[in-house]
Amino acid sequence: MDVKLRELPIWILMQDFIPKGIAVVFQKGYYQYYKYLSMKKGNVAGLSMVLAAYVLFNRCRSYKELKQEQPSEYH
Fold first, then answer.
1. CA angle 15-36-19, nearest 5°?
2. Integer Cα distance of 40 and 34 in angstroms
3. Residue-wise pLDDT tens digits, 3-15
4. What tens digit of pLDDT does each residue of 17-64 get?
5. Which of 22, 31, 53, 74 has the fewest CB atoms within 10 Å, counting from its CB?
């Protein structure tokens, strides 16, 4: 995972998009989940990171609506 930002499009095009390649990616993600976010360890950090990412994603997605709802000052 040492991909630089400028190399990202080339790296994505080199990935294997056949069903077997996609299955391997899901399997790696499954093992990463249980390695870092498993609740068997009682670790709250993984859950809080997922929650923070969810909140940040939704905040960015609804920024326009939130910006328009700001109260304006009347002088």
1. 25
2. 9
3. 788 888 887 788 7
4. 788 888 888 888 788 777 766 656 556 777 788 899 999 998 888 877
5. 74
Residues 6+ apart with CB under 8 A from 15: 21, 25
Which amino acid is present at 46?
G
> Quick one: which of 66, 53, 13, 24 has its CA closest to 45?
53
**Which tokens belong to 75?**
């002088």
13's tokens: 């095009």
Main-chain dihedrals φ then ψ at residue 37, nearest 5 degrees: -115, 10
**Tokens coding 27:** 């399997």
pTM of the prediction? 0.35
